[in-house]
Batch of 2 targets.
Target 1
Amino acid sequence: MIGVLRDWPIWLRAFAVSLRGELLRHPRLIPLIATRPVMNLGSLRSVEKVVAALCKAELNPLRAFHIINTVTTFVTGHTLAEAGSTPGHEDFAEELGNRLDHNEFPCISEAIRRGLGSSEDHQARFEFGLDALFAGFVKTACKYPNIV
């Protein structure tokens, strides 16, 4: 599961992609998962394995938890925003482009025209967010692995 220690950004990113995929397959569970994380021995054992692998990659346990929590919070929040809907506003994003004054909101109108809110856009934003997170992790966590 874990892979080569120096490749932790690769396998942790793969975990993030996999987690998003599973959450999207079960969208009605996302609010529950977001607000009530699983805290049982099985989940703690899984977390322990990941933290231990990050520690073997020369990060301290607290820094490892910072990284894991940042990744899972990003994935859960992004997926909740992507798959969630507000009762009574299901068609809001779709209709926004039709109701918007393009002269008053030219940038928003152009973003909608280019696919803002589409499944491709959600995927691109997710990838962009992961790229930014992991670039920051590698720069700061590896530069200062034991500061905390």
Note: The radius of gyration is 19 Å.
Target 2
Amino acid sequence: MPEHDVIHNVLKLEPEAHDVQMDELIRMIAGRGIKNVLSIVARLKNPHLEDDLHRVLVRYIAEGLPQGGAQLPKRVRRALDLALFIIDPQAHGERGKEESRQMKLPEILSSSEQLYAGLVSLISRHEGFSLEIAVPEGTESATLYLAVPRKKKDLAERLISSVFPNARISEERGDYNIFNYEGEHAAAYATFAEHPAYPLKTPEMFEHDPMNVTLAAFAKIAKHGEGAALQITVSSEDDRYNHHYKKILKRLERGKVLYKALKVPESAVGEMLYDTFDVMFKSKERIQEEKDRTFRRQPDQVATEAIGRKVKSRVVPTLIRLVASAPDKARANDILENLIAPFNQYDDPKGNRLRFKKVSSWSIASFLRDFSYRVFDSSYAIPLSLAEITSMFHFTAERVTTSRELKRSFAKQTPAPVDMPNEGITIGLNRYGAEERPVRFDAADRLRHCYVIGQTGTGKTGMLKNMLIQDIKNGEGVAFIDPHGNDIEDVLAAVPPERMDDVIYFDPAYTARPMGLNMLEYDRARPEMKTFVVDEVYGIFRKLYADVPEAFGPMFEQYYRNAVQLVV
């Protein structure tokens, strides 16, 4: 099998600079298994190659190819069974102002929170989904990505389409790669500065879209040699966090001291033991004195209001990763600092704030591997409410039409008409949201003619060839004039065996087998066609010799008509 045959022809992935190495690794899978191949690449400590291998393995498993060797751990299997979508928000402004109504910030954030609540309900306890902004190495614009479990991808796509109908959703067969092959890398993850029950700024506290500030940080990344990404991986823990924080809130409302209320354990057994030990080591007088003080003490209003805001929205375990790559370590750290800075806008003076911890050199290899494979590592996770996640990431950004940071869709999507023909040849597919319908061209409409217009390379010839091939397979008669001489080979290759005798192939350049063409032939059963043939041939002469109009005087026309009519 030639090199890249599996990658390009079977997996149908775009060519990449290191496909030779990937092809060798694929050949090793059958004999040694995916698990051993992963170990081999991990020892190379090259994040670029690991990311390339991840791209290949996801498609390899999705195509159902043999995996060989020992069974993969569940954690790795889940990571390789994710579907990746590119979300291109609908552009607004000069080019899109007449196409759709521009959503305002409160509507955007409310819709995004509704979307994330739906996505959380789709995933099981050990699954997750990933929200990402990335500028891959070799590109300039930032792209929005969503990764979900493959078996849930159709539901997720329909959910996005229902919430953001103007967004363009496309599944990515491959994956992006932000890593410089020979460069240096830096990474960080988010932690809370205060107790996790305290919230960050929530959507209603923003007047302008905070995501614009985050996107601006990606504008400072060079097209070649640099790359960066923000990855927000969300898992599900039922109502564990909400239940815990509501217990804290109830104790505060009863006048409990703040630091004691925050120490209450999550489980009911833990809470009972906590209260029991608290009572066991106190005298009766001390217990009565604390009860009296608690009865007289007013609840901590600041803490009560803050934690109350946190539990208004569902709280889920969330992992925020920031990764940067550049030719040298100093530049990678500089990019990372630029990505961290926008998160200061989420600091709440009466609540919480994010603090990013940089990953040390001895653990960065495994951290970057988990980033590439979108592995949810609970040791790095923090509890965030869906409202807090919404403020940081949403699929429609307001007033970014003048910004080059975000990749957007300027084309308007519309659903196919309800009364569209169900018969005839297929000329395309209408994709609106998650729904896909074939567009057909029936025989009655074809009698009104078809005119195909488009720029070079947009698919005009391909569309006509597809129409022609469908007609041939349907038993229809067709005529195809190929001015270039290469498209006719595709058409002839598509002729079914039962129609081989119907083919007439005329190549004027092939002088070994010339073809005679009688320009004056007509149907003798219709003598009125004689005048039509004479006029058409005369018209051909006029076009051929238009540069010498003096040759076509009235006498020549009279001689021509008499002579030709005499012949026919």
Note: Residues 93-101 have pLDDT under 50 and may be disordered.
